[in-house]
Fold this protein.
Amino acid sequence: MKASILRIDAAYRGFFELRRLTVEHDLFDGGSSGPLLREVLHRSDVAAALLYDAGTDKVVLVEQYRAGAHLAGENPWLIDIVAGRIEAGQTPLDTIRREIAEESGLTPTAIVPIGVYLTAPHLSSERVHLYCAAVDTGSVAGCHGLAHETEDIRPLVLARSEALAAMATQPLSLWAGLALAWLDNEQRIPPLPQPLPREGGGELDRARGGVDG
């Protein structure tokens, strides 16, 4: 089976680039599709990581405003995992170490690769390099993000069971769902020292709130 890109035109350039492709590909029952027009959102790949403390069996998720969730009619303060664009000259590992510091204020002690996935290949060329990173949840404090990118990010420390339950009760990003499903089936993250117990619970419930569209 063969496929060819015959022409690429830039239909729009902004935060993303919209590319209009002329393509042609073989058909499963023989023959060719002939020239077809397809539009694809194009930008650099992403690195993302679920932060996990095996010593406490807790995860660190992040909460921030997402315009796409808002437009879809969901609560725009989306529960997600740490993620960021892979910049020119950087590796996925370089990127995720940077993003963990920027979005959570934490330093990982180990990073385990989960896999590389096409986020939405029917409309985007984006790939996500997905990881799980070992962290100390006792060091989580405050809000984070880069001011010049107008980021306002709040880390949330959740019991693993509470985070896994969220997959069935509320919308999450695709990356968060993939990483949590992986964690539910893996035991490869090295444990960290047990932090002193702290009062609290139900962080996810306290983080939820109504939003007017």
